[in-house]
Design a protein that fits this description.
Pfam families: PDDEXK_12. This is PD-(D/E)XK nuclease-like domain-containing protein. By secondary structure, the protein is an alpha+beta fold. It contains 10 helices and 9 strands. The chain has 2 domains: about 55 residues, no CATH class; about 280 residues, no CATH class. About 35% of the residues lie in helices and about 15% in strands. A hairpin with a 2-residue loop joins strand 7 and strand 8. Helix 4 packs antiparallel against helix 10, helix 6 runs antiparallel to helix 7 and helix 7 packs across helix 10. The radius of gyration is 27 Å and the shape is globular. The protein starts with a helix and ends in a 15-residue tail after the last helix. About 20% of the residues have low confidence.
Length: about 400
């Protein structure tokens, strides 16, 4: 007599018998549905199935958390979280998007017509000085903690490269840590936030720029934004009552709507496509400029909007980092490729850190005052000041 185990196996094989349309438990056809003679010396039979397009993790060791960072799973931006499409990869499809209303144009460091004065682009000289800041003048008193953090980030850069880390790995192990370190070193650290905006859409959708070819609007996001605290909670509620969308930026998310967003960060792998990253930064930035127009219209009906302050944009592509500065002239957004880094050692990473800190300080000391003038709220109390209960 067959053992109970053998009987269960034979019964299972019998259930597989049928026509070629038989499906397995997740809906995929079995390659073989014919019953075969069972031999007691055979290993337990396993049904052969067609591959369903989910890649095997590239790492077989390490903690579950770290291993997940390097799986070649679909990006979190994808609407299909279970399988990868058979269409060409995103970096194969990527091309520069032709935006209109407003249009977006990219320039090299020396091809953009010069800025005449601050009236044309508010806060421009202060931002240029911040970007030109050298690390020697900022980190004269380097602490052991800062050096230790830089060593860790450098090690993680090598780790991501060696293990072919995906975007999540670069975000979690490299970019987010250095952004947090920069925020902690800012002289305005209590008012500066590093905001994760990976899953946040532009709101309302009419802030999205149009596409010249007439195709549908792309639903693109960035990874991080540098946010500045606006004012006390009571003063913020009084201000947003005057705004149609009840938010200070291009998002209705409760974690963001009371923050002034002064800079944005997008992360790609070394093979992830810098053009795709530029498209994402351009869309998010263009929506932000249109939001500033919307705020002005809500507060000054019928009055022509003044020039707007520039927005620094950071594109990390593996070890490579580009700092763009976006400005608006008339109906065109000019995106200037201002600085580039190849992060090959701790010295280069320290220079990146110094520039991040300097730009964050510019955000609080120059961009926020300009934003308050746009709102007509120059005298609002500082965040954290004692306020009367309502």
């Amino acid at each position: 007599m067959c053992s109970n185990q053998s009987r269960r196996i034979i019964d299972w094989l019998s259930s597989c018998e049928g026509d070629d349309s038989s499906k397995d438990e997740i809906g995929y056809p079995l390659q073989s549905t014919k019953k075969r003679k069972f031999d007691m010396n055979d290993a337990t039979p396993v049904a052969k199935r067609q591959a369903i397009g989910i890649a095997t993790p590239s790492l077989s060791r390490g903690s579950p958390e770290r291993r997940n960072l390097f799986e070649t799973a679909p990006s979190f931006h994808s609407s299909n979280a279970t399988s990868r499409s058979s269409s060409p990869s995103k970096r194969q499809r990527s091309s520069e998007i032709e935006f209109s209303n407003p249009s977006v144009e990219f320039y090299s460091a020396f091809s953009l017509p010069p800025i005449r004065d601050e009236a044309e682009i508010p806060s421009w000289p202060e931002l240029m000085n911040a970007i030109a800041m050298k690390e020697d003048s900022m980190f004269l008193a380097q602490t052991a903690l800062v050096e230790h953090e830089l060593d860790k980030i450098c090690k993680n850069i090598g780790y991501c490269e060696q293990r072919d880390g995906n975007e999540d790995a670069w975000c979690e192990l490299v970019v987010h840590p250095i952004l947090l370190l920069a925020a902690s070193l800012s002289r305005n650290s209590r008012y500066v936030d590093v905001l994760n905006v990976k899953s946040i859409d532009v709101y309302p959708r009419d802030l999205l720029p149009q596409i010249e070819c007439g195709s549908s609007l792309p639903a693109k996001r960035v990874d991080y934004s540098i946010g500045l605290e606006f004012t006390t909670h009571n003063a913020w509620k009084e201000t947003v009552r005057r705004l149609q969308d009840r938010t200070l930026n291009q998002s209705k998310n409760k974690m963001l709507r009371d923050r002034i967003l002064c800079s944005h960060v997008e992360v790609k792998t070394s093979t992830g496509g810098s053009i795709e990253g530029r498209n994402q930064l351009a869309l998010w930035c263009a929506s932000g400029f249109k939001k500033l127009d919307s705020i002005w219209d809500d507060l000054h009906d019928g009055v022509v909007a003044p020039p707007v302050a520039p927005t620094p944009l950071w594109l990390w592509t593996g070890r490579d980092l580009q700092l763009f500065v976006a400005m608006r002239r008339a109906d065109t957004i000019h995106v200037l490729d201002k600085r580039q880094w190849k992060i090959s050692d701790k010295s280069a990473l320290r220079d990146v850190l110094a520039t991040l800190v300097s730009v964050m300080d510019w955000g609080w000391e120059s961009y926020r005052p300009w934003f308050l003038r746009l709102l007509g709220q120059e005298s609002v109390p500082l965040p954290g000041e004692v306020e009367e209960a309502i």
